[in-house]
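Ticket #4471: structure output looks truncated?

Reporter: J.K.
Steps to reproduce: submitted the chain below (99 residues) through the standard prediction queue, then opened the result file.
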Amino acid sequence: MILFLLGVILGVLAVKLWEIKQAKNIHFSKLEYAIGIIWILWVLFGGIFVVDSLGEGETRAASLAALIFGGIALLVLLGMRQLYLRRKRIVPPSNSINA
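Returned output as attached by the reporter:
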């Protein structure tokens, strides 16, 4: 039941993020989409591992997994943000020829 609720929460979060993306007219490259999908799967796997470890009574395994999965997920999220902001600052050159 807990895994079902975790899936529902992640689904609602994904829909809200997609609506924000559409409202603000944000565009991502294929690389950013691939990194985002891998990140979502990483977070989902980490959440499942932590919940299962807690269910088995392995609190130490759950806390270490939360630290490892959460730390890496946070670093990847910050890296994705830097990629997006760096790409947003770079203005592509115009195709017009100055004569």
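Triage note (M.O.): checked the attachment and the full token line is present. The mean pLDDT is 83.
Status: closed, working as intended.
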